[in-house]
Amino acid sequence: MASEKQQEQSEKQQEQKESPTQDHTDNAQPKDEVTTKGKEIKDNLDQLLDEIDEILEEDSEEFVENYIQRGGE
Questions:
Q1: Dihedral sign, CA of 7, 13, 17, 22?
Q2: How far is residue 32's CA from residue 27's CA, in Å, rounded to a whole number?
Q3: Cα 71 from Cα 62, distance rounded (Å)
């Protein structure tokens, strides 16, 4: 009895090894709502990065001006 179950399990494992696995990610198409949400997030991140760049640029100019006025090299 135990031998039969072991043989069945062995056969199932062998079938799984022989049958090709399907990779569902190859043909996956993004849903419209996910694509739209992704574009919104990207746009928001781009705006935030632009703001950060502007602030860093202003602060760096001010830092250099203050450094030069104090006699820094």
A1: positive
A2: 15
A3: 15
Structure tokens at 72: 């820094």
Token pair 């799984």 is at which residue? 16
Tens digit of pLDDT for each residue in 12-58?
A: 777 666 655 555 556 677 788 889 999 999 999 999 999 988 888 87
Residue 16 to residues 26, 30, 69, Cα–Cα distance (Å)? 20, 29, 75
- Give the domain ranges of the chain: 35-73
| Burial annotation 13-29 (CB, 10 A radius, 16+ → b, else e) | eeeeeeeeeeeeeeeee
